[in-house]
Amino acid sequence: MKAIKFLLVLLLVFFISCNSDQANIEAKEALINANLELFIKTFHNKKDDVAQLKNIVEESYVRKINGVIVASNLQELKANIHFFFSGFPDFNLVNNKSYIKDNDVFMYWTFTGSNIAEFAEHPATGKKVTVNGFSHMYFNNQGKLYKEEVFYNELDLLQQLGYTLKTPVVE
Predict the structure, then answer these.
(1) What DSSP string runs through the chain?
(2) Which pLDDT does position 16 carry in this prediction?
(3) By C-alpha distance, which of 83, 78, 94 is closest to 131?
(4) Range with the lowest mean pLDDT among 15-19, 55-59, 111-115, 129-133?
(5) Model pTM above 0.85
(6) The pLDDT of residue 115
(7) 99 DSSP β-pair partners
(8) How far is the CA of 145 from the CAs of 12, 104, 125, 142, 156, in angstroms?
């Protein structure tokens, strides 16, 4: 009889802890989703005061674009994204679909904008672009973004701006 009671208590504790773990996972995912939404809507699309970034992005944040480190802290992130904001003042990023696994977010996105100012040290082309890409974003246990790997087709972007490739000279 004591063994059955002990087993029932043990099972009860197990089920309660499982529910508690699930609640913790759901709370962490909700925090990550909220910070992801804030990162896109407030920082990328509204270009609001970037002071809010300190609440959702680690100071030691690292951003890679197509395998190249373009930012290794929060200040460099602001400068890197300003590069796009200045070239495309109507810059708009849409989260098409995102998935959360543990503390990682995998996001498929679309960026649209009109190149009406200098971009990449080239004069404005006046052309509108639509670029699809993928980001792998890493969040810590407090829900802050500390690393992002961005992938998109740079050639597609440049071709939409009117740039072309020339056939190499072969001797």
Answers:
(1) -HHHHHHHHHHHHHHHHHHHHHHHHHHHHHHHHHHHHHIIIIIIIS---GGGHHHHEEEEEEEEETTEEEESSHHHHHHHHHHHHHH-TT-EEEEEEEEEETTEEEEEEEEEEE--S-BTTB-----EEEEEEEEEEEE-TTS-EEEEEEEE-HHHHHHHTT----PPP--
(2) 53
(3) 94
(4) 15-19
(5) no
(6) 97
(7) 106
(8) 36, 9, 34, 9, 28
